[in-house]
Amino acid sequence: MNMQSNERPTDLMGKSADDALTLASLGIVAYALAIVSHEGLGHGLTALAAGARPLILTTCNFDWNGSVSGSSVRWIAAAGSIANALVGLLCILLSRLLRAIGPHLRLFLVLAAAFNLLLAAGYPGYSGVAAFGDWTAVIRGFSPEWLWRVFLVVGSVIAYSCSLRLLAVALRPFCGSSAPESLARLRRMTMIPYLAAVAAACLAGAFNPGRWTVLFTCALPSSAAAGFGLTRLDHFPGVRVSGSSVPAGAIPRNFGWILAAVVILVFFVGVLGPGIRFQPGR
After folding, report:
1. Do residues 5 and 238 touch, judged by C-beta distance below 8 A?
2. Is residue 51 part of a domain?
3. Beta carbons of 39 and 80 less than 8 angstroms apart
4. Closest CA to 80 of 131, 128, 39
5. Is the pTM above the cut of 0.85?
6. In this structure, are residues 117 and 88 in contact, taking their beta carbons and an 8 Å threshold?
7. What pLDDT is stored for residue 6 in this prediction?
8. Fewest C-beta in 10 Å: which of 12, 51, 112, 216?
9. How far apart are CA 63 and CA 76, in angstroms?
10. pLDDT of 3
11. In this predicted structure, what is the pLDDT of residue 128?
12. Cβ–Cβ contacts within 10 Å for residue 97, how many?
């Protein structure tokens, strides 16, 4: 295979050399990282730092109690999106600095950046429109509330657009041109991980103590809605500019990533789905 070509990698039979199961596995691991970053690193660590007592950690929520001041409550609520933004930007940076890494790890970094950045950028807009979620708690008490909700929506649209542009550049090694074969490959490499992430979110959400309410108000918005932009990156001109990017190779079947996805999915659905309770009986 000529790895200097920007055409879609194919095997000798003319079929795509990008393995669908491996692509799905990369998507599951990347999405799980985004959720753990949001709920655990963001909400969880900030709540502990503020002196709150953790109650339960799930894929959809982190609940706590304790005597915490108003400003601390706002920071705890905002910390999930802040953590996602930081992790996403770190993944983007690593994907650019580590030019010699293999295509599997490079794509994982881009997918991890995508799920983190798009969740961070999309959540304020969701709160602004639905009057629900973390950023509703952030602006609670601000007046006039309707104006702050408008700010959330406008800021979210701007941040989401900027995130897509960053991701388009990060995906250049997997596309690099406007040839139909390259764009078809890009659509496949983003759609399969996206659908795998949505499936993982729904499975875990179905086991959440809140059941169907949480599934539709949290699990699906965090995966299907927030991550949808990932599947539209083939429409961004920035993804088709080649030159400085080192072409990435194919994504053949990799049992290491598949095993990692299975282990993480079992933990994500079976443990974090129903939740880790820090105070039994609560």
Report:
1. no
2. yes
3. yes
4. 39
5. yes
6. yes
7. 39
8. 12
9. 11
10. 35
11. 94
12. 9
Q: Enter the tokens of residue 66.
A: 């304790």
200 in a structural domain: yes
Q: How far is CA 222 from CA 31, 34, 51, 58, 97, in A?
A: 10, 10, 27, 13, 28
Q: 89-135, pLDDT tens digit by residue?
A: 999 999 989 878 899 999 999 999 999 999 999 999 999 999 989 99
Pairwise CA distance, residues 274 & 282, whole Å: 13
pLDDT for the residue numbered 177:
65
In three-state secondary structure terms, 54 is strand
Q: Is residue 225 part of a domain?
A: yes
Given the structure tokens 């993944």, which residue do they identify? Answer: 91
Do the Cβ atoms of 52 and 66 come closer than 8 Å? yes
Bridge partners of 57, per DSSP, are: 62, 276
DSSP 208: S
Contact 279, 53 (CB under 8 A): yes
Distance (Å, whole) CA 222 – CA 37: 13
Task: Give the position of tokens 């309707």.
Answer: 146
Which residue type, as a one-letter code, is found at position 125? G
More confident residue, 239 or 195: 195
Domain-located, residue 217: yes
Range of 263's domain? 20-277
